[in-house]
Specification:
alpha+beta; 7-stranded mixed beta sheet; two-stranded antiparallel ribbon; 26 helices; 57% helix
């Protein structure tokens, strides 16, 4: 107990200390038992930074949250009456209050059909993993008293993910916990205990009762860890990827010709995700790394001389993203971002392998726009060969391409580049009505500028349009 008190004294920042102190005072006032529980306790023992405080109240959690909120100077809470939980919208440190409860589940839904008040042990045993089933009393009288009925502290030391009750019961009640097991394993670099992993393999199909929004959010959390491949591999081994991401599942065990990559497409893809995770904290870019070769399985062909080929997997992959986005309820912004990077991910590599011209670099910069830096980061991560000579040769050429990009004048101008001649003027000069032909002509003018055929100014663009006017009209 003294060790826990020492941790509470020295392992928390001042704001968290204040929240716990005030919570203890409210508990004393309402004469209810109050505990810090779950993630805050786990992270306290792991010496991790704490940005969320979960409080368990053996009593009315919502009334408690209202009183604590007033003490913190926060006027309103967000309450969920059915579950006896409330969120106190504190800006810097998240605060959630819940009544100690047990739940009864219907076999066809992860949402509890019955919620009942209970004591501390009844609440802790309903939680997902032992490392999240620890609590610390924060009442004034018993401050620092540690509750660990399921051996969470031992599992923390062993670096093991284990369920407090039977894993079959834990995962059946709430199948999303299987993805959470993958998340915590990926986040903490912990192993999933053998019987828990076996239960996941037997119950993976129950993930189908979980809403796609919850699956998506948990998937994002896995991609946001420092080594996403751990969680992704666990989901593949359990069978979960087969249901939630069949396009990635089908890569498993599929060979590809090894030039710059691993021979196995699944292994290569996961290595790219991890490489990108080392280069960027941006979850969206890690997602792009996961799907950049999504079309390789369906475009794979065998060439007698070259081995496996994947012609057009960039363009086919872009089209496949739409189906993924619809299924996983992705935002249009994220969907468009994934499509763009999937379509363009071979372009920088093509430049690296060939003589690099200013016009080719400019075309790539225009195509990538604001996402150019992300595209180049993805391409850096896409090199997974273990051959140091290949890596050295590739990277020297890659750096040459990046240098040309930095040397090309007006980089910001390239991001928003478009024809100096606008649509209405093209219609007037060529005698055309509004339609797709106007866009094609604008693209023709833009290509002429990018290829250094004409200068990027209004007069040269107009002269070029007049020059090609007759040719345009002849083709109508």
């Amino acid at each position: 107990m003294s060790n826990v008190k020492e941790l509470l004294k020295n392992g928390l920042n001042e704001e968290v200390k204040t929240i716990l102190k005030l919570a203890g005072e409210v508990g004393d006032l309402l004469e209810v038992k109050v505990y810090a529980v779950g993630g805050i306790v786990r992270d306290l023992f792991l010496s991790n930074y704490i940005n969320d405080v979960d409080i368990m109240v053996v009593g009315d959690g919502i009334e408690f949250a209202k009183r604590l909120s007033k003490k913190l100077g926060i006027p309103k809470i967000i309450s969920f009456e059915k579950f006896g939980t409330a969120i106190i919208p504190n800006q810097s440190i998240g605060i959630e209050v819940a009544s100690a409860r047990k739940e009864v589940y219907n076999n066809n839904s992860r949402k509890p059909e019955g919620v009942f008040q209970t004591d501390i042990n009844g609440d802790l045993k309903r939680r997902d993993f032992t490392i999240n089933s620890m609590a610390i009393d924060i009442s004034t009288q018993n401050f620092g008293e540690f509750h660990d009925p399921y051996g969470g502290l031992i599992d923390l030391k062993k670096k093991v993910i284990r369920t407090p009750l039977s894993p079959d019961m834990t995962f059946s009640d709430d199948p999303l916990r299987m993805m959470r097991a993958a998340y915590f394993s990926s986040k903490l670099k912990f192993d999933i205990e053998k019987s828990s992993m076996q239960s996941m393999k037997e119950q993976y199909h129950r993930i189908e009762i979980v809403s796609w929004e919850r699956i998506r959010d948990e998937f994002f959390k896995i991609l946001s860890t420092s080594m996403p491949s751990i969680g992704l591999t666990i989901m593949e081994e359990a069978g979960i990827l087969k249901i939630i991401f069949p396009e990635i599942h089908v890569m498993y065990g599929m060979d590809q010709t090894s030039e710059w990559h691993h021979k196995d497409i699944f292994d290569h893809t996961l290595q790219v995700v991890d490489n990108v995770a080392q280069l960027s904290d941006k979850m969206e870019l890690r997602f792009a790394a996961l799907v950049h070769d999504i079309a390789k399985p369906i475009t794979r062909r065998v060439d007698k001389k070259r081995g496996y080929t994947f012609h057009g997997h960039d363009a086919v992959g872009e089209r496949m993203i739409s189906k993924v986005a619809d299924r996983m309820k992705l935002s249009k912004k994220l969907s468009n971002y994934l499509k763009k990077l999937t379509l363009l991910h071979l372009r920088p590599i093509a430049l690296v392998k060939s003589h690099v011209t200013d016009s080719a670099v400019r075309r790539l910069m225009v195509a990538a726009g604001d996402d150019l830096d992300d595209l180049m980061t993805l391409c850096r991560g896409d090199i997974t060969t273990k051959n140091p000579k290949k890596v050295s040769r590739y990277m020297s050429n890659f750096l040459a391409v990046e240098k040309k990009m930095s040397d090309v004048s007006n980089r910001d101008e390239m991001k928003s580049f478009q024809s100096p001649i606008r649509g209405h003027e093209i219609m007037e000069i060529c005698g055309l009505q509004e339609g797709p032909k106007i866009g094609a002509i604008k693209k023709d003018i833009e290509r002429a500028i990018l290829d250094d055929i004409i200068e990027n100014n209004y007069d040269d663009a107009k002269a070029y349009l007049i020059k090609i006017k007759n040719k345009i009209n002849d083709n109508i």
